């Protein structure tokens, strides 16, 4: 099947919000205490999470490396000799992200997931769309890498989002750029919330620290080796916000998976999230020969804190329990009402499961 054709739509941009609480309508300041749980299974398959650091665990023959070091004249010569004898040092499992030697989900990865989900949750209304997004080249044809992502997030992925038109021709096709005089900056709602070149984010994502669950060494089909968080692992951390409107806080919650009733749908993040994998070996043992999934997690909010200045000075309003759930539902409803074309409550985990089941039937 050939690559699909895209619909040309125009990104709706408005003046960027001030970042200094000077806008009387954007005065919400506070933080969210997030809890993240790796789903135990998806469609009956165990579910892991891998947040890669880009580093590889290495194993080496200490005696062989010492002998090579003796032969080398300097560091460059040692590296050259080492590269000629790859059996001395071998790349093993891909590492997870660690801060202060503690495994975590980095705030940058969480922010990237939220931004991507929001960009793809908007679709055009009357050929105008509320969000831009990055596109890597042309849409993939059937069977090419990226096709599952394209199908999963339709109809947003079927849009070519441009700044404007001259007749029927697009003026420019790029993401928001705020590297100009601030008073003239116009950006889409997602870039206004989460930042763009030249424009700071109004949401600060902290790392989600690992709280529970083991790290497992897995060797997968395709000769891939990695460390992964086992099913049921949990993480916890903070997300801070400043100068938000109610509907913008609701938009952030939608990006985290929140729905109109105050609950949260599972979302996807990390490596190998779009296809089942086969485990060849594991350490600790017990997963060999099993088909597993990756990347399905469920976020939730443990508490929501609003900060303001009262008669006695700075103070906090802390929401928990049923009151928190009602407020989440209210904020999501505000976002749904304020932003046309926003798809609230979409579950990519459920949709992907349906696609995989359909692929089994068709196969």
Number of domains: 2
Shape: globular
Number of helices: 8
Beta-strand percent range: 25-35%
Largest sheet properties: 9 strands, antiparallel
Helix content: 10-25%
**Which spans have pLDDT < 50 for at least 5 consecutive residues?**
none
The overall strand count is 24
**Helix and strand composition category:** alpha+beta
First and last CA, distance: 16 Å
Overall mean confidence score, pLDDT: 87
**What would you report as the Rg, rounded to the nearest angstrom?**
23 Å
What's the arrangement of secondary structure elements?
Elements: E1 7-11, E2 14-15, E3 28-38, E4 41-42, E5 45-48, E6 52-60, H1 62-71, H2 75-84, E7 89-96, E8 98-99, E9 102-105, H3 107-121, E10 128-129, H4 147-152, E11 159-162, E12 165-166, E13 169-170, E14 186-187, H5 189-194, E15 203-205, E16 208-212, E17 215-220, E18 224-229, E19 234-244, H6 246-255, E20 267-268, E21 277-283, E22 291-294, E23 296-310, E24 313-319, H7 321-338, H8 348-362
Parallel strand pairs: 1-10, 1-11, 5-22
Antiparallel strand pairs: 2-14, 3-19, 3-23, 4-5, 6-7, 8-9, 9-16, 12-13, 15-19, 16-19, 17-18, 17-21, 20-23, 21-22, 23-24
Task: Outline the structure in words.
- The protein is α+β, with helices and mostly antiparallel strands and 363 residues long.
- The chain folds into 2 domains: 17-51 and 97-127 and 189-362, no CATH class; 60-91, no CATH class.
- The protein is built from 8 helices and 24 strands.
Give a brief description:
This protein has 363 residues and is an alpha+beta fold. The chain is 25% helix and 34% strand.
């Amino acid at each position: 099947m050939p690559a699909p054709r895209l619909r040309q739509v125009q990104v709706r941009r408005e003046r960027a919000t001030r970042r200094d609480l000077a806008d009387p309508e954007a005065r919400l300041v506070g933080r969210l205490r997030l809890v993240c749980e790796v789903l135990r299974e998806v469609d009956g398959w165990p579910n892991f999470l891998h947040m890669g650091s880009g580093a590889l665990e290495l194993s080496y023959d200490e005696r062989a490396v010492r002998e090579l070091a003796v032969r080398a004249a300097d560091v460059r010569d040692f590296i050259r000799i080492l590269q000629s004898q790859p059996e001395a040092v071998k790349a093993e499992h891909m590492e997870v992200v660690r801060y202060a030697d503690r495994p975590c989900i980095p705030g940058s990865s969480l922010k990237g997931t939220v931004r991507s989900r929001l960009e793809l949750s908007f679709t055009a209304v009357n050929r105008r769309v509320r969000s831009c997004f990055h596109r890597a080249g042309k849409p993939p044809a059937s069977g090419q890498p990226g096709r599952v992502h394209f199908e999963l997030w339709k109809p947003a992925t079927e849009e070519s989002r441009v700044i404007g038109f001259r007749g029927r021709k697009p003026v420019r096709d790029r993401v928001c750029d705020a590297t100009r005089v601030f008073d003239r900056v116009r950006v889409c709602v997602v870039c206004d919330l989460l930042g763009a070149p030249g424009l700071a984010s109004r949401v600060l994502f902290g790392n989600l620290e690992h709280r529970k669950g083991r790290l497992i060494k897995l060797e997968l089909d395709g000769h891939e080796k990695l460390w992964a968080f086992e099913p049921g692992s949990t993480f916890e951390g903070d997300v801070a916000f400043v100068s938000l409107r109610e509907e913008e806080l609701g938009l952030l919650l939608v990006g985290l998976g929140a729905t109109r009733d105050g609950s949260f749908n599972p979302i996807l993040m990390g490596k190998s999230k779009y296809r089942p994998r086969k485990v060849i070996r594991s350490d600790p043992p017990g997963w060999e020969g099993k088909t597993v999934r990756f990347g399905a997690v469920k976020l939730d909010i443990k508490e929501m804190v609003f900060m303001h200045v009262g008669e006695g000075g700075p103070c906090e309003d802390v929401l928990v329990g049923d009151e928190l759930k009602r407020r989440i539902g209210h904020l999501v409803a505000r976002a749904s009402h304020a932003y046309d074309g926003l798809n609230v409550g979409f579950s990519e985990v459920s949709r992907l499961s349906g696609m995989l089941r359909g692929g089994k039937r068709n196969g």
